[in-house]
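idk why but the lab printer keeps eating my pages so im just putting this in chat instead. protein + FVH:
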Amino acid sequence: MTSVTVIGLGLMGKALAGAFVRAGHRTTVWNRTAGRNVDGAEHATDVAAAVAAAPLVVVCVVNNDAVLQVLEEAGSLAGRVLVNLTNGTPAQAREVAARVAELGGRYVDGGIMAVPQMIAGPGALVLYSGSAEAFHEHAATLEALAQARFMGTDPGLAALYDLALLSGMYGMFGGVFHAFAMVRAAGEDVRGFAPMLGAWLSAMMEGMPEQAEQIVSGDYATDVSALAMNQLAMPNFVEAAKELGLRPDVLLPIQRLIDRAVEAGHGADSLTRLVEMIKE
Ligand code: FVH
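predcted complex ->
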């Protein structure tokens, strides 16, 4: 069993450390503020001691500014693999990778596709990128957290895919919350609506492979649903929201994209054409 250090014992860091302990790894933890504990782990008194305790150091703190602060306290990272599971941008991941290299360590960035309760359970996935050698050396240990998927040697790739997947989630939640708000504002059965909404979204998701084909080919012809038709329907959504006493805020950005696409002469194309309108 490998020794592993976990830095950061927030909601996620605690779940990660607990998973390593349960998998039988000798686990050392450190948290900036004292009082956060993990049963079965050894608690280091400072960052340098935590880093010295194990060849594999997993960092999961609030953001990458905090990661860089932690690294300043770490001292040398010679002989260490630093796995950064903190949310951040691809550029931030590359910056942290460069700092880790300056300190003598090898770097693997990660994006956690799970909430703390999912860690070490089915369906949990962590995306990794950076040093392939370091990742493969520790992949078996990292599998204690979740399925481990290596995306490539550019340290920014895990963050790219992490943020892309989460962007999909936030966009979907915007629509979902608006839909719930409509049904509730009308005094209807919110509980009964949930499975209807889930089934509808699942049916819509089946079109994703076809959407990917359109994006790759650049051919947005449709016999399903044209942008011009959607443009005419959108004011109904905005008006209905207002009639129910709701803010149409989550609808307006998509309405603006549709308007711009039609104005640019793409009224006969499918909704997937909006991918092109998102480009700056
Ligand atoms: N929780 C979740 O569902 C998501 C799932 C996907 C991945 N995210 C990312 O994971 C990072 C940590 O998230 P978290 O949920 O553990 O966050 P908190 O519970 O708020 O804990 C934050 C920890 O960060 C420590 N910290 C903050 N600033 C510093 C600093 N300057 N130096 C060292 N540590 C710092 C904080 O320590 P303390 O406040 O207890 O002293 C907590 O340990 C995050 O990137 C998510 O986006 C989670």
